[in-house]
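Annotated sample (chain length 279).
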Amino acid sequence: MLEWRLYEAGHCMHPELATLQGGRLAPCAFPALVAALRHPVHGRILFDTGYAHAFFAATARFPERLYRWATPVRLQEGESLVAQLARDGIAAGDIAWVVVSHLHGDHVGGLADFPLARIACAREAVDWMRARGRIGALRKGVLPALFDSATQARMEAFEDRRTVALEGPFARFGVARDLFDDGSLLAIPLPGHAPGHYGLLFRDADGLVFLVADASWSSHAIRAGIPPPAAVTGWLGDTDAYRTTLAHLHALHREAPHVRLVPAHCREWRPAGEGLAHA
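Output written by the structure step:
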């Protein structure tokens, strides 16, 4: 059983219409939500890192600056994840693992702030990035400058972990990767948004929690089964795969409403004040 807490490490501004068919054209804030978990054996674990100072350094020059123009980013002083954790008495060196859902800049911007942490991510995602140049990766929202040799040396692949066949309402997702070989943290592929996109399933004192990253931009979209426009999902990834994944999440919500599904940019899950505690 794990304890966990959500933090908001910055946010970007974007029209709701880009994330939800029939949404508003006016820009709205999409929080970069990060989960900080405490495992009884493996210590403190992060699921993604949100925005951080390294993101702004990586997008300071053209053409990477286009990333910031397309989705304007707001990160106030003291709002980076490492700063918020420090205020809660958690040092950067206390983080044992960072589990990465995918390689988009708003999810990995703070990797450099946790230099002692091991990084779990999909080999598929890393291989995709390495096969493309600076421009090719940028076109899909990936910033290779965030992955220097030291960071890449800390990466360990989901694909090297034991495969677990999922059952019950989760069977539609196929198989998971057991990160610690004890069933406590399962990385589940959620294809469509980006290469090597994964969610994270675990249990806390109140039941099951499924962090679904960018498989949906909101809880409303999961409940209603409404995808983003095809132009957006096709630009970033694979529209057919994305819509299949969203349909699976919609069905999971209907069949197992007790499972808490947490998208990475959902305003319903936005922490109030000093984070949203779940223990």
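Annotation: The chain has one domain: 3-270.
Annotation: The longest strand covers residues 3-15.
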